[in-house]
């Protein structure tokens, strides 16, 4: 049993490596299958982030969709080149963007699993360690919605782990290819990879750091860095046409970036800001502490290696984990220094440190299991059943890792949105392609994906505040929408409809109440329009849109009404005449 569990590759048969590798892929397939099951529970199902990053890709099938649509144009413009063209290519073989975003997670998960197993074996050639590391990384990625989303961020795991694997193998061509793929799918990963390549030239011996004396090291890193520079220049020179990135000083004045804002970044809590903040913190959102705790003990286990670990398989390449960590943290602080020009600081540690802790934890657990099995071999009077006890403890430790998802709150975490009003989606889908829908209801966020029709604005994901040219228009739209939606002024509603060429309003029952606005974090960001609307409603007066809604309703389903905006103008005029 000891030989089967923890013997290094050179001391065992090839079949044992195949067994653990196949077992890792089996679990990855099971987890991916669980995600697929949720993805195909109904006709109107889409992942939350994909609602914003995927919907516009339906233009690949029908170029006439979303004409002159600010939101669709923006998300198409900022989407990475490789990610965009992969989805475009798949439409040529009949796979729609919505379908591909559901199918891709299981494929990306399997690729990531294979590379994680390979990285671990390169660092520590014990097959069970590869299994444990890849299993823990699977727990990470299926506890978050990054890979599940099928968006650009989903590709960072297979491409970054591919780079790490080929770097360890010193495969120049594949390392350069992995960097290029990072650049056209998720450029932030290129900067981390570049940092690792630079650190490859530094060596540490007897508490001293010195540069490599090997010409081949400079040649390898130099060529890879040239590829990284080329792909980053292409990305940097790409103009999105939506103005400069917002400055840190300007962001500090905006409620969107403050506590409870939709893009919360700046908080007064030091620990949250620097460590656990979703956008500002250095620690990845893990969902579990098991890998983090296990990886923490790895350095101490290695220090005691000569005393308690008989394995000689630990290699000097374990320093690569430290290099990944240093490169990630360096980019994290640089991103804070040049806020928000390198996007969000957390993006430089969130994914890479998950990979590091998963690999470190897998190796640490394998070393602990080996120590337990060796302890069981030694005779002892106090515990005569040591062999059995060591097997039970080792088995329990493996079971702890395998069964970890059973006590997690949500596993896998998919954040799939299931459309609950198909009649509404079908109604809009039957309208002309150039219609525009306005609403403050949450359901409006589903219309672009499910009906393939344009919306004026939505509160979930669409108001991205990082490019000033885009967000200035979004903010103006939102302020105008809130003002007109709750207006009692006859001319104000008509001016709003005509200015934006609104065709329909999607109205939710109960939306004409003060509490509805107060409970919407999205609307409360847009002042003074939100507070003015609350003040008007508290006087007891009904907004004009509520008064004429029944006479212009084209469809009513559950708590939603579709109001014809052109009818609203006509009814407004007749209403004014009666006054």
Highlighted features:
mainly alpha; 579 residues; 9 strands; two-stranded antiparallel ribbon
Short description:
The protein has helices at 2-6, 14-39, 50-53, 70-78, 81-92, 97-123, 127-143, 146-149, 156-168, 172-185, 188-199, 215-237, 248-252, 270-276, 290-303, 305-308, 319-337, 350-377, 386-402, 422-429, 447-450, 468-485, 490-500, 514-518, 521-524, 529-538, 544-548, 565-578; strands at 45-47, 202-205, 208-211, 416-418, 436-438, 454-455, 504-508, 553-557, 560-564. It is mostly helical.
What does this structure look like?
The protein has 28 helices and 9 strands. It starts with a helix and ends with a helix. The relative contact order is 0.11. Strands 6-5-7-9-8 form a 5-stranded mixed sheet. The chain has a two-stranded antiparallel sheet with strand order 1-4. The chain is elongated and about 90 Å long. 59% of the residues lie in helices and 6% in strands. Mean pLDDT is 89; it is low at 306-311. Helix 2 runs parallel beside helix 7. The chain has helices at 2-6, 14-39, 50-53, 70-78, 81-92, 97-123, 127-143, 146-149, 156-168, 172-185, 188-199, 215-237, 248-252, 270-276, 290-303, 305-308, 319-337, 350-377, 386-402, 422-429, 447-450, 468-485, 490-500, 514-518, 521-524, 529-538, 544-548, 565-578, and strands at residues 45-47, 202-205, 208-211, 416-418, 436-438, 454-455, 504-508, 553-557, 560-564. It is mostly helical.
